[in-house]
Design a protein that fits this description.
The chain is of the alpha+beta class. The chain has a domain at about 105-115 and about 195-230 and about 245-300. The protein is built from 9 helices and 10 strands. The protein has helices spanning about 20-35, 95-105, 110-160, 165-190, 195-215, 220-230, 250, 255-265, 295-300, and strands at about 1-5, 5, 45-50, 55-65, 70-80, 90, 230-235, 240-245, 275-280, 285-290. Strand 7 and strand 8 form a beta hairpin. Helix 3 runs antiparallel to helix 5, helix 5 runs antiparallel to helix 6 and helix 8 (about 255-265) crosses helix 9 (about 295-300). The two termini are about 35 Å apart. Mean pLDDT is about 75; it is low at about 255-290 and about 300-305.
């Protein structure tokens, strides 16, 4: 903090990150917008029209069956057409659910990949621990050097050797350097290996895709997992078109796109070590592809430099 033209060290810590706060606020707004519905439209608010970009809404149609003397409700999804005229037609919820299952299944990580990816993750975790320790020691040594400089500066000022204005200027410079180093240390403590846990979750989610797609899940559960693998979904000609999140998009990419990721991460010790035969479901074409280091897939797709 700054007081009377001089910097003084503070000791308070941030309780939560700004990014986490913003994510919570967005989720609260989303829940508030949908909590007053009479019907539970599972896929509501998840898709946009591929033709005009308007929101996809849902509605209930009722049909009376005279033979059984009962009324059945059917849920359909369609474009709101609030932006401009649109030719897109409605799609029944069961058909939409089937397509969501395929979208999730298309990014399923085979068990043969998952086992090796976990092994790579263990190796990277050990390397990351060593790197964090070395960087922490280096920064802490720089702090000690700055503290010595501050002490010498104070001694010179108290003995009348250093002019008050020069003392104040140099003190502020040293404090600014200390502030930067402390920020680096805090970032290392909070984010030094922050990619490891998300990546472990990514592997677990990718391994679960096939099970989720085939299990007798509710539409709400499919929606939740759909948000895990996809960032946006568009509906065009009754066909669901996903925009996969980075990482999942790589799993769904054809071999040429996967090869490009290997080129970008040619220095990785685990890239291209051996070949893995990829077993896929009947909805996907069987292909032989080089093994991909999980860091190359996950961090590379996030545009993070290794």
């Amino acid at each position: 903090m700054e007081y009377n033209g001089e910097y003084h060290e503070g000791s308070h810590k941030t309780i939560i990150s700004k990014e986490l706060f913003q994510k919570v606020q967005q989720e609260l707004k989303f829940r508030d917008r949908h909590k007053k519905r009479r019907y539970n439209f599972a896929f509501m608010g998840l898709m946009k029209c591929g033709e005009c970009g308007a929101t996809i809404t849902a509605e209930v149609h009722r049909k009376y069956y005279k033979g059984t003397n009962r009324t059945v409700e059917y849920i359909y999804y369609r474009c709101t057409k609030k932006i401009k005229p649109c030719t897109q037609k409605y799609i029944p919820e069961p058909e939409l659910e089937t397509q969501f299952r395929k979208v999730i299944n298309d990014v399923a990580l085979p068990e043969t990949w998952g086992k090796q990816w976990y092994q790579w993750l263990d190796q990277d975790e050990k390397l990351e621990t060593v790197s964090i320790h070395e960087n922490t020691e280096r920064l802490e040594m720089e702090l000690k050097v700055l503290d010595l400089k501050l002490n010498k500066l104070l001694d010179g000022y108290l003995e009348g050797i250093i002019d008050p204005e020069i003392y104040k200027t140099k003190k502020n410079e040293f404090f600014e350097e200390k502030l930067k180093i402390n920020e680096e240390l805090e970032q290392i403590k909070q984010n030094g290996s922050s990619w490891l846990e998300p990546f472990k979750n990514f592997i677990g989610s990718a391994l679960s895709c096939a099970k989720i797609a085939r299990a007798k899940n509710t539409s709400e559960e499919l929606t939740f997992f759909g948000k895990t693998v996809g960032s946006n979904f568009f509906l065009t000609d009754r066909r669901l078109i996903p925009v996969y999140k980075k990482g999942f998009a790589e799993l769904c990419a054809p071999p040429p796109a996967q090869s490009q990721s290997r080129l970008n991460f040619a220095d990785s010790l685990s890239v291209g070590v051996e070949r893995i035969e990829l077993s896929v479901s009947a909805t996907r074409t069987q292909r032989d592809t080089d093994s991909l280091h999980p860091v190359a897939v996950f961090l590379g797709c996030l545009d993070i430099l290794w």
